[in-house]
Specification:
Structural class: mainly beta
Distance between the termini: 28 Å
CATH topology: Methylamine Dehydrogenase, Chain H
Shape: globular
CATH architecture: 7 Propeller
Number of strands: 36
Strand content: over 45%
Radius of gyration: 20 Å
CATH superfamily: YVTN repeat-like/Quinoprotein amine dehydrogenase
Length: about 400
């Protein structure tokens, strides 16, 4: 009887679709070595498509569950290795975007991108040779795919090199057609140095701008509607708050967006619903001082999990859940993590030395410890963990 039960349990782990109501935990596979190097970004579309971007700007792509060898995407100058992001579209196409210092000064920087489709990488596209950066950042573009495998890419462009003013630019396109003309979506003149974006299945997008490192600045949100129109920028967090920085954003298919950011010793949030942002407030349950990093993910229905690190009083990493339209629930301490992602169905995965998973339909977190810090990605069917210091990938079947 016990042997039969064990066989059925292993089968449940192996399939891509899990019954949320009957499975409380999922199981990560043993890490599989992809290459030597340092991974800086990982993505999956949940159905056998995956991609990893390495420091030094090479990438490896998984097609049909098989990983190819890393391919160099760009020849960098002598002023740094650069960094960027990678994303896998629902149809299996891949977009990588990165930036690097083209001179021995902080500005201007160069941003480039490349699509992977039909089994090979296309030509490198120079997005801009005039990207804003500072001591903390080379200004890597933010990227995302919608449900039609259309990519959006945003970056911060220098508009006046003398007084150093900036605008936020955006382009859209596909691997088949390439990118269209760049569009200015914010012309405030402020140079932030930090841009993050979330895109949902229907093509809505939310971009947040803020400052990196331990600088102080406003938090600004810019939204795109399903018709492709970008709304006017909205100041979510007013300037003048000490060390207000590093905003992260999640966006549900219902249009609910949640932004989380740090201030000096605190973590704050704001929610966008029915087209309006709420007043910023401290994340409930935060005791004493917050530090390190904060992040947020939103599932397809608009439910959110925020991640924050608490120091001094009961130090550790905490996750706190907010049902759409509701209030934040009691925080839960999880293992060391600094990143969180979500699937449309409501599975949340927190990445770090400990990777914690809360499956859709469950309120329980399960934990797996890896030998080094893991970056994570998740989509309907599968989650990936990118494990260092050598680049290894572990998978987990999730709804």
């Amino acid at each position: 009887m016990s042997g039969s039960w064990l066989a059925r349990s292993k089968a449940l782990v192996a399939v891509l679709t899990l019954a949320c109501s009957s499975v409380a935990f999922a199981q990560w596979s043993s890490p599989k070595l992809i290459a030597n190097g340092v991974g800086v970004s990982v993505s999956t579309n949940g159905v056998g498509g995956g991609a990893v971007l390495f420091g030094g700007l090479s990438a490896a792509v998984e097609t049909g569950g098989v990983w190819g060898a890393p391919i160099a995407l760009s020849s960098l100058g002598p002023y740094g290795t650069g960094t960027g992001s990678i994303a896998v579209a629902p149809n299996g196409d891949v977009l990588a975007a990165w930036s690097f210092r083209a001179t021995n000064t902080y500005i201007p920087n160069t941003a480039q991108a490349a699509f992977f489709t039909g089994g090979h990488w296309g030509k490198t596209i120079t997005i801009s040779n005039n990207v804003y950066g500072d001591v903390y950042s080379v200004g890597p573009p933010s990227i995302g795919f919608d449900g039609q495998s259309r990519a959006t890419l945003v970056w911060e462009e220098i508009t006046n090199p003398t007084t150093v003013t900036c605008a936020l630019k955006a382009v859209t396109g596909t691997a088949a057609s390439g990118f269209g003309a760049a569009q200015t979506i914010s012309n405030s003149g402020t140079c932030f140095g930090w841009t993050r974006m979330a895109v949902n299945h229907f093509g809505q997008a939310v971009v947040v701008e803020g400052v990196p490192g331990i600088l102080s600045g406003a938090v600004v949100g810019i939204s795109r509607e399903t018709n492709g129109t970008w709304d006017a920028p909205v100041t979510v967090g007013q300037a003048g708050v000490y060390r207000q920085r590093q905003p992260k954003v999640g966006l549900g298919n219902d249009g609910t967006a949640v932004v989380v950011f740090l201030t000096n010793g605190s973590a704050r949030y704001s929610v966008k619903s029915n087209g309006s942002w709420s007043a910023t407030a401290v994340l409930p349950g935060l005791a004493g001082t917050a530090g390190g990093a904060a992040d947020v993910a939103v599932d397809g229905n608009g439910n959110a999990v925020a991640l924050f690190q608490q120091v001094v009083i009961a130090p550790g990493t905490y996750a706190i859940y907010r049902p759409v339209g509701g209030s934040w629930q009691t925080k839960v301490q999880i293992g060391s993590a600094a990143q969180i992602v979500a699937t449309p169905a409501g599975t949340f995965v927190a990445g770090g030395t400990t990777v914690s998973t809360r499956l859709a339909g469950s309120s329980t977190w399960s934990a797996t410890t890896f030998p080094d810090v893991a970056l994570v990605s998740a989509a309907a069917g599968q989650a990936l963990a990118l494990v260092g210091p050598q680049v290894s990938v572990s998978t987990e079947a999730v709804p």
